[in-house]
Amino acid sequence: MLTDRRLHPPGPKGHWLSGNTFEYDRDRMGFLMRCHDEYGDVFAYDKRTIVVRDPDLVHSLLTRTNEDFSSESSPVATRFDADRSATDSRLWMAARRSGWRGLNQDAAAAHTGRLRQLFDRQLNDTVGREVDVLALMETYSGHAAADFCLGADAKGIAEVVVENTRAIAPLSGSSEVLPEWFPSRTLNRFRQARKKTLDVLSRKIAARKSAAVPENPRDLLDVLLTIRPGLSELQVQRLIRGILLAAYGVPAASMAWALWTLTTRPALWATVEAEAMAWSSEEEPTLTELPRTEAVVKETLRLWPPTWLMGRTALRATALGKWSLAPKTQIMFSPYLMHRDSRWWPDPDTAVPDRWLNGGEPIRKYTYIPFGAGPRVCLGTRLGLTQLVLTMYWLTRNYRVVAPDALAVIPVFHNLLAPYGFQATFVRK
Ligand code: HEM
After folding, report:
1. In a mutational test of the pocket of ligand 1, which residue from 100, 248, 250 has the highest number of ligand atoms less than 8 Å from its CB?
2. Which of 113, 129, 187, 230 has its Cβ near the most Cβ atoms within 10 Å?
């Protein structure tokens, strides 16, 4: 029987030797936009990589992750190895399922109570002098992630996570993929940072295991150590390292964008500030009690999703819509482009928080994916939103922000989409 399955989508031919890498690296977003304009919602970047922008295909890709597609990625060339990836993925998924409840309820509740102190400490250290907002938010979320995972034993963790993330950045931000054995300083730094994080975690986990477990979990490690059937030490270590890394750069970039959005749009600052000032100093609102702030945060994540480009790898020969995919094909998609597509979003490039409030237009599924979706959706979706909303609440309630050059910030589509170079001074009200 004849099928209409096409083998490979059309796409730019590129240079005979370097393909499209040079053009892409010169202007990543511009390149993707030009190709989508020319070839439509699906185009081939090269023989092994296709880029999609169709919500139904993105839906299929995300919901079939683990089964037909892998989301495992490591910044070195062993990053694709179907067997290793399947084992890793099973181990991770088992740990992830067990940790889910604790992550979203017990450990999160204990942590948000302490987040306020972390925020005050960070901001107090900077008051009155101009700081780089992204760096400030990185330090804050590094400490927040360490506190969430290890509570009272968090000392020293934020520092190894910062080094680990810095060591990964030049590898994952590059279009070139190096083999793991490759003798290079960058790879050496990455290997050492990874080992140091795992060693530190291993010591902290062993120490906690030998102490009495409290009745009410104080942090994620307490939750993971009391799960029945128990997790292996490797699972606990992997889950915590994965969460520490995931809870550092992306939330920090989201917080920096949220603050940038408020600083550059005085009317939005006034709305969020008014909602914050309506609370008395004895009360502490929850996420759902700050709907206008939440709407601003969601709109910020629509306009500036830090994970602006995501991907999956075909685990076997399979199909996506009408396209046949060979094993190991990479399928990329950009939440940034999906979030700004005028077919799904009226006035897509303008910040309109009201679209998230009652009476806004219904949102087409899989056109809003700042946290991903499917079985590998962000584990910290609720925690991340809570951290963002409460941080904007504390900020607008207690501080004024002076940032005369904020409008000069231009988005850079590097490893993460973040407001690099955004400088501000925080002044106590
Ligand atoms: C605003 C803040 C955040 C944003 C925008 C965000 C976004 C994302 C995105 C886009 C992914 C990839 C999802 C996919 O591949 O389908 C992800 C994965 C992940 N996130 Fe977040 N994240 C945030 C905060 C957090 C926090 C606070 C935690 C810590 C609890 C966290 C833990 C994770 C983990 C562990 C993964 C990997 C999930 C897996 O592969 O199974 N995230 N996040």
Report:
1. 250
2. 187
